[in-house]
Specification:
With about 500 residues, the protein is of the alpha+beta class. It contains 18 helices and 11 strands. Helix 1 packs antiparallel against helix 7 and helix 10 runs parallel beside helix 12. The protein is globular. The mean pLDDT is about 90.
């Protein structure tokens, strides 16, 4: 059962009470943890209790220090400690770290207690998980064929995106997914408090971007042989083997142009222009060879279910998302797509109209000039385009007399319904399109923060369960960074004020 839960206000009082004497005697020692103290002081874990309670038995010995253990992981991430065993050792030799997570030096959670929390938050049958870990799996060699620069692995199953879109439109998502509780905790502990603080902006008109990233596992791709082929002189066999990370697969890293062994992370992110901060709102870990365009459908479906009070207004993705099923889904959900055209789909167009258009879906006038965007007409669900000469975009036009005698110039209309890929609600090449497209890099910056700033891969973790857990913890810290930037709260300044009043 879930034991006594120290409230956030009680933790704040405990922290101040125990840090004050250390600060008075060794000010520099406390100042070096200033940022971490400020973040932990504002990390309210009271919302975590009702989320966790259903997953603890009503009988048996109560689980102690659950908020403290969770806070311990957050501090581990902040201090870039990648080993739980090493971290517990550090706690036993540093009273300040103990007080920061909310425990006294004689009540430190053990290594097993930390691992127990990770296991409890993963909603997979332990017996099934153990069978998968203990069983033998086929050995797959690293692919030799390399793809072209910036080329991504195509979907392994033709038509799979359309199948997922059909399921999404029926409201069917992966309710039994083992990471569901981790996603819920991240939403309640990080995303919703950030939304309440205005970090996400207008949650009824959110712009989100989606992108995948490569995550290399700490497990070996060669596994452990259990066959006797070596005794027979066969040293290059393909027999089944035991793997420390049986869920890991080979995937193609299009940026570094190399194969990697591990997973693909896919995150939905929003950008705060005022704070210049990139804020993740949804996290998912999938197999390494999974195509981003496939994962995007799952991500959008699960995110909409996770945040029923959020309204996603725009979705920004790279060319991996450029396919008709995705546009159809986004239009059904009233989400404006901002997706560049994939050069490989150049001749894959459904448009059969008489208006001449360029490669970006923009009408071309008689003189061969791109017409000027003049707004989206919601009542008729069409986009209005005007003559570039009449709007002053060009100084002269040889076809003026042939085209239209009106000073207003020729006007044409395109409908997203006739080709949702070419005729997007926000026209390709428009100033609004370019402005929104710049926000796509927010996804890449979140990937960078997880991999570089928080050194995700240095943990050498094995298994989807632990990778998903650490991605959640690091992402919570990204939220704390943004909230601290907005509030400008400083724990040390607060301590100085308290000591001043005491004096």
């Amino acid at each position: 059962m879930l034991g006594a839960w120290r409230s956030h206000s009680d933790y704040q009082s405990f922290l101040v009470e125990n840090i004050q004497p250390i600060y008075a005697s060794d000010k520099n020692r406390v100042i070096q943890f200033s940022e971490a103290l400020s973040k932990l002081y504002n990390l309210d874990l009271d919302v975590l209790k009702p989320v966790l309670e259903p997953y603890y038995s009503n009988t048996g010995s109560p689980a102690k220090n659950q908020p403290e253990v969770f806070r311990s992981f957050v501090l581990m991430s902040l201090l870039k400690c990648h080993s739980i065993t090493k971290w517990v050792y550090m706690l036993h030799h540093d009273d300040l770290l103990c007080y920061m997570i909310g425990v006294s030096p004689d009540n430190i959670p053990g290594v097993g207690t930390h691992y127990d929390l990770i296991n409890r938050l993963w909603l997979e049958d332990p017996d099934i998980e153990k069978d998968r870990q203990d069983s033998l799996h086929p050995f797959k060699r690293k692919p030799r064929k390399k793809l072209a620069k910036n080329q991504k692995l195509p979907p392994r199953h033709p038509g799979i995106i359309q199948k997922f879109v059909d399921l999404a439109l029926q409201g069917k998502i992966f309710e039994s997914r083992p990471e569901k509780l981790l996603q819920q905790i991240f939403a309640d502990v990080a995303v919703r408090p950030s939304a309440n603080d205005g970090i996400l902006g207008d949650i009824e008109k959110l712009t989100i971007s989606g992108d995948g990233t490569c995550i290399k596992t700490g497990g070996s791709p060669f596994g452990i042989r259990t066959c006797d082929c070596a005794n027979k002189g066969i040293f290059n066999c393909d027999c089944h083997r035991k793997f420390s990370d049986p869920d890991a697969r080979y995937g193609w890293d299009s940026y570094h142009e190399t194969w990697f062994y591990g997973y693909s992370g896919y995150f939905l992110v929003t950008y705060n222009e005022e704070l210049k901060s990139d804020i993740p709102i949804y996290l998912r870990l999938v197999e390494a060879p999974r195509y981003d365009g496939v994962t995007a459908i799952i991500a959008l479906s699960e995110a909409r279910a996770l945040y029923p009070d959020f309204v996603f207004d725009k979705f920004i993705g790279d060319c991996a998302h450029d396919n008709y099923p995705t546009y159809h889904l986004l239009n059904k959900w009233n989400i404006k797509p901002v997706i560049p055209l994939n050069k490989k789909n150049k001749n894959n167009s459904k448009y059969q109209g008489t208006i001449k258009i360029n490669e970006n879906g923009i009408p071309v006038c008689m003189a061969g000039l791109s017409m000027v965007y003049n707004g989206f007409m919601k009542d008729r669900n069409r986009i209005k385009w005007r003559c570039p000469f009449a709007t002053g975009k060009v100084d002269s036009c040889n076809c003026k007399d042939k085209c239209s005698s009106s000073d207003y110039g020729r006007t044409v209309y395109t409908k997203p319904s006739s080709d949702p890929r070419l005729f997007t609600v926000i026209p390709r090449g428009s100033d609004e399109w370019k402005g929104e497209m710049k926000k796509r890099t927010s996804s890449e910056r979140v990937n960078k923060r997880l991999l570089n700033d928080y050194e995700l891969e240095l943990s050498k973790t094995r298994g989807k369960k632990r990778w998903s857990f650490w991605i959640m913890i690091h992402s919570i810290n990204i939220h704390l960074d943004a909230r601290l930037k907005k509030s400008k709260f400083d724990f040390i300044s607060m301590l100085d004020g308290l000591l001043g009043r005491v004096a």
